[in-house]
Automatic annotation (TrEMBL):
InterPro entries: C1q_dom, Collagen, Collagen/C1q_domain, Tumour_necrosis_fac-like_dom. It comes from the Eukaryota. This is C1q domain-containing protein. Residues 39-48 have a biased composition (Gly residues). The keyword Secreted applies.
Length: 253
């Protein structure tokens, strides 16, 4: 009975196929289905055999990137001193330098000065500045402060000739803060005070004139009266001789 039904169904299908028309056009694609679940990871495969390399004269690969700078290493030991190099050629002669200051025993040095007072009643207890310079060879006298500085070791002659007006005058000639000679002139309408002295000085020694105090400061300067301070280098001491030997040589003693 089942066989009969199958035969009849097959016959009906064949009849229907014979009645089919020509093949139609391809239809539009259907909607994409949802993504399926990921499959289970496969197991790790077996390691393959190591390859053989018969490379010869292969091309050099590209240079890799520079790595980061490493830390500074420890200081290495000092190397042995190298051998002295050959002496270089002699250089050109330099320019001539300036003339140096005279030495303490320079016989060719000359020094002399003379200066006059500009203002009466100079300040006491300090060097009197005789600011009107009459002569000042080699500029060893400073008119701004009234101090003479010895340029060399030697024998020097100093003098002062002062006008005094309307009061007493006590004045002295000082060598390095020590009074060598002093003059006292009594009060008078017009008077004078003078001294001359010979001194043995070393290079750099100072000499000046100084008034004692305000009450005995009658030093005067005017258009018809001058107060002056003067000095000069008389004889230079040679380094190999003493001051006494130099004076003896001068006078043939």
């Amino acid at each position: 009975k089942k066989t009969l039904w199958k035969s009849m169904a097959a016959r009906i299908c064949l009849e229907q196929l014979e009645d089919l028309g020509p093949k139609g056009m391809k239809g539009d694609p259907g909607v994409v289905g949802e993504r399926g679940l990921p499959g289970v990871p496969g197991g790790k495969g077996d390691q393959g055999p190591q390859g053989l390399c018969n490379c010869k004269d292969g091309a050099q690969g590209a240079q890799g990137q520079t790595g980061e700078k490493g830390e500074k290493g420890n200081l290495g030991p000092t190397g042995e001193q190298g051998t002295t190099g050959a002496t270089g050629p002699k250089g050109d002669q330099g320019d001539m330098g300036m003339t140096g200051i005279p030495g303490p025993c320079s016989p060719t040095v000359q020094s002399t000065f003379s200066a006059a007072l500009l203002t009466s009643l100079p300040q006491p207890s300090r060097p009197v500045p005789f600011k009107r310079v009459i002569y000042n060879l080699n500029q060893n006298y400073n008119p701004d402060n009234g101090v003479y500085t010895a340029p060399v070791n030697g024998t020097y002659v100093f003098s002062y000739h002062l006008q005094v007006s309307n009061r007493a005058l006590k004045v002295g000639l000082f060598h390095n803060f020590e009074a060598m000679v002093r003059t006292t002139t009594p009060t008078a309408e017009m008077n004078t005070a003078s001294q001359q002295v010979v001194l043995s000085l070393s290079q750099g020694d100072w000499v000046w004139v100084q008034v004692k105090d305000v009450n005995t400061n009658g030093m005067y300067a005017g258009s018809e009266a001058s107060s002056t301070f003067s000095g000069f280098l008389f004889f230079v001491f040679y380094c190999e001789t003493t001051a006494r030997d130099s004076v003896a040589t001068l006078w043939n003693i």
